[in-house]
Amino acid sequence: MAFNLIDLENWERREFYEHFINRVVCTYSAVVNLDITNLKGQKLYPAMIWLLTKTVNDMPEFRTSLTPEGLGIYDDMHPMYTVFNKENKNFSGIWSWFSEDYKTFLKGYEDDVARYSTSTRYTPKPGTPANSFNISMVPWVEFTGFNINVFDEGKFLLPIFTMGKFFERDGKRLLPLAIQVHHAVCDGYHLGVFVEKLQGYIDQF
């Protein structure tokens, strides 16, 4: 893992960053319906975790973080995601190493889920890497809006992704995806590019 500090004095985004991190502290979220027809026959959750991580790793705006070291960009990211305990109806947050090879990632994911999905702890797997981001799924609800309120000092810059219940429309299978980002590092344009890239990866999967 490498964390590359941003030279704030010469950063072309400095004015926008300082506005949305200091004066008008602003996160925002959007829900998009992804066409996941091409994922029929696949295990949806691990496939989407892999596809989201692959897309995040394409875009520095989604890898920018404010740490004790300073403002910087991770060179790559790994997913932290929720698993549901069917017995006590609660969830745990675990993580897996990302690999560009989906079969390698899937094997690690399946091992982690088998080991930790019956846990009653919130974070049963130790060693969560700093360069990880949050993914969850609410497969019981088909939603058109979703917002997560992070009550910190307004400096949590990494994205948060939440998937809902997929549905069928006009012969397509659609998945609602809520994307929450910080305006200091990610504008609507970057959100649009992210969704376009993600849909492209889904279509090619």
How does this structure look, described?
- With 205 residues, this protein is of the alpha+beta class.
- It has a domain at 45-162 and 193-205: Chloramphenicol acetyltransferase-like domain (Chloramphenicol Acetyltransferase, 2-Layer Sandwich).
- The protein contains 4 helices and 10 strands, in the order E-H-E-H-E-E-E-E-H-E-E-E-E-H.
- The protein has helices at residues 14-23, 44-56, 102-116, 188-204, and strands spanning 3-5, 27-35, 64-67, 70-74, 78-85, 90-95, 132-137, 160-163, 167-169, 172-182.
- Strands 2, 5, 6, 7, 8, 9 and 10 form a 7-stranded mixed beta sheet that branches. A 3-stranded antiparallel beta sheet has the order 1-4-3, with no helix packed on it.
- Helix 2 crosses helix 4.
- The longest helix is centred in the C-terminal third of the chain and has 17 residues, at 188-204.
- It is globular, with a radius of gyration of 17 Å.
- The mean pLDDT is 96.
